[in-house]
Amino acid sequence: MSPTLFPVKLQFCSLSSGSSGNCYFAGSSNEGILVDAGISARRIRKILEEIGVGLPLIRGIFITHDHIDHINALTILTKKFKIPVYCTEGTWKGILRNRTTFDLDQTVYHRLVVGEPVYVAGLTVEAFPVSHDAHEAVGYHISNSTKSITIATDLGIIGDQAAHFLKKADVMVIESNYDEHMLLTGRYPEQLKQRVHGSLGHMCNAHTADFIAGNFHSRLSHILLCHLSAENNTPDKALATLSKTLEDKGVQLGSDTIVHALPRGARSELFVLES
């Protein structure tokens, strides 16, 4: 790992975003946290080294829910590296029922309660409930003294509590999973189409774009679309839908507002939020 030449107070990187695996880093140059660990521990370690952080600087892993594309690396990360895991009780029970994670180190578990912030790596982290087909699934609002990131992934609709945290974020990491036409005319079986399309499934490009257009504010520096479907979406479609919706509703983004579709199966750039 190369030494950090220009230390920063808050930065964000998507290590991977999509149904093949999800993992996000937030923190300073000196320490930070992961949100989800759905790719291999080897890849997590490699990517963290690439961005100059390193696995020994990770103070906690915050899990959104117990689906395998969010928890794949937990056994190794807890047994070998002893990294604390934070999640709701319902999510933890689901993790222990999973065949790939049932034998992880349970001594590292920290129970999260919605509405009760925790303080890790110089960050305040607060969980909020999301609408998804997993027990006690959550999103996260992550902040230091001046900047905040809200991660809302894997949700069928944006409820009041998710909306509250998304609206006040400087960095909005929000699911834009599928293009509705591609999903409904695609090759998924009907039952899976209905699951994805339902209120406990995923957000489509149009609904995500409507929310962003209706809640844009001048402090919003980054709009990062996450968890794009490989089968039913493309980055170009997600970004084009957002752009058209903003134009139709007369919403003008700031000249320095960054809008990006986070890549599937690869890391994003490292976004420096506060130097």
Based on Cα principal axes, name the global outline: globular
CATH class: Alpha Beta
Mean pLDDT: 95
* Percent of sequence in beta strands: 15-25%
- Give a quick account of the main beta sheet: strands, pairing sense, barrel closure: 7 strands, mixed
Radius of gyration from the alpha-carbon trace, in angstroms: 18 Å
Order of helices and strands: EEEHEHHEHEEEEEHEHHHEHEE
By CATH, the architecture is named 4-Layer Sandwich
CATH homology-level superfamily:
Ribonuclease Z/Hydroxyacylglutathione hydrolase-like
- Count of helices? 9
Strand order of the largest sheet: 6-5-4-3-2-1-14
Question: How would you describe the overall organization of this protein?
Answer:
The chain has 275 residues and is α/β, with parallel strands linked by helices. It has 9 helices and 14 strands. It has helices at residues 41-50, 68-71, 74-79, 89-97, 160-167, 180-185, 190-197, 205-215, 235-248, and strands at 10-16, 23-27, 32-35, 58-62, 85-88, 109-112, 118-120, 123-129, 138-143, 148-152, 171-175, 222-226, 258-261, 271-274. A 7-stranded mixed β-sheet has the order 6-5-4-3-2-1-14. Strands 7-8-9-10-11-12-13 form a 7-stranded mixed β-sheet, covered by helices on one side.
